[in-house]
Amino acid sequence: MNTIIRATWQEMARRKMLLITLVLTALFLAVFWFIADTVALPGGGAASDLIGQFARRSAILSLGFFFGGFVVAFLAIFSSFSVISGEAEQGVLQAVLTRPIPRWKWYVGRWIGYVSLIGTYALLLYVCIVAITGVHAGFNRHAGDNVSSLLLFLAAVPALVSLSMLGSCLFSGIGNGVFVTMMYGAGWLGGMVEKVRGVLPVEPDVQATLSRIGALLSLVMPGDGLNRRMQYVLTQGAGETIPFLTGGNPPSNAFIVYALIYTVFAFGLGLWLFKRKDF
User: Fold this and answer.
1) Averaged over 148-154, what is the pLDDT?
2) What is the pTM (predicted TM-score) of this model?
3) First vs last Cα of the chain: how many Å apart?
4) Contact criterion met (CB below 8 Å) for 154 and 119
5) Which burial class, exposed, middle or buried, applies to 168 when counting CB atoms under 10 A from its CB (0-12, 13-18, 19+)?
6) Phi/psi zone of residue 201: left (φ > 0), alpha (ψ -120 to 50 degrees), beta?
7) What value, to the nearest 5°, has the Cα angle with vertex 83 and ends 182 and 23?
8) Dist. CA 4–CA 42, nearest whole Å
9) CB 199 within 8 A of CB 243
10) Where are the membrane-spanning stretches (predicted)?
């Protein structure tokens, strides 16, 4: 299994996908540094203006993780969307599986390879965004909140990889890329409906309907919901100052449990289909 994990890392390095992502991320962090410096109060905010400092810190975090959630999601999707169907079409998978390697070890090795590498990238991105925010606007969240938000940010990676590998057992490479992207887009749309419903001048019953629609769409792919909960933990609701990015009610603890069950189910179903699939 270790060989499969290393092969997954080498494949991502060979395709230069991770290198391109790192270069573009460095460019984003440079722009984000400038934005954070512009938004932050002079000198990091005076003690007499703690409310303004807190609001600016929340705004900077929201802007940073709005991008961070997207880049982590698309890196996870486009790294693994053709891992099974694509290699089967090229004949690579048939050559590998003729060796005495249990199918489950190949599948689990691939999954660990993608999750570990993309998770490491997500960890570095999280640290950079929080560090830049800390330099320009201060960052005084408790260690428990910081760890919880980090775990929520990382939790989207195995969910996306599990769904992508499951789809690769069912669809062609391009078809699966479209499928997983649309699933993530549906979850993002659900979060967006939840964010804007509170600022729309509509009746309470209409707001309740929008809330139900947003919740149902968020269940399709919980990656964006985990990101919204992570931002709420970091800002403790101050993100309401940017309704377009972080408005609405944050996902509940039950949603987090659902996201874990979603990930395990997608992983288990994908493994089961892969073991029964003819190549």
Assistant:
1) 93
2) 0.88
3) 21
4) yes
5) buried
6) beta
7) 75
8) 51
9) yes
10) 63-84, 111-135, 147-166, 173-193, 255-274
**What number of CA atoms fall less than 13 Å from residue 185's CA on the CB side?**
6
Q: Cβ atoms within 10 A of the Cβ of 146, count?
A: 15
Q: What tokens were used for 10?
A: 């080498």
Q: Please tell me the distance from the alpha carbon of residue 67 to that of residue 180, in angstroms, as a whole number.
A: 19
Instruction: Give yes or no for a contact between 277 and 94, defined as CB atoms under 8 angstroms apart.
Output: no
Neighbour count for residue 220 (Cβ, 10 Å): 19
Q: Looking at the predicted structure, is the pLDDT value of residue 83 above 70?
A: yes
Query: Could you tell me if 77 and 165 are in contact, meaning their C-beta atoms sit under 8 angstroms apart?
Result: no
Which pLDDT does position 103 carry in this prediction?
Answer: 82
Return the pLDDT at 48. Answer: 46
73 vs 160: CA distance, rounded Å? 7
Q: Average pLDDT over the chain, rounded to whole? A: 82
pLDDT band at 49 (very low <50, low <70, confident <90, very high): low
User: How far is Cα 106 from Cα 112, in angstroms, rounded to an integer?
Assistant: 10
Token pair belonging to 264: 């395990």
Residue 125 has which token pair? Answer: 């991105």
Length of the chain: 279
Answer whether 52's CB lies under 8 Å from 67's CB: no
Q: What residue spans define the domains of the chain?
A: 2-276
Angle between helix axes 143-170 and 223-235 (nearest 10 degrees) is 170
Contact assessment for residue 64 and residue 147, using Cβ atoms and an 8 Å cutoff: no
Rounded distance between C-alpha atoms, residue 182 and residue 129, angstroms: 27
Tell me the pLDDT tens digit for each residue of 213-259: 888 888 999 998 899 888 888 877 544 445 445 556 778 889 999 99
- Which tokens is 152 given? 């929520």
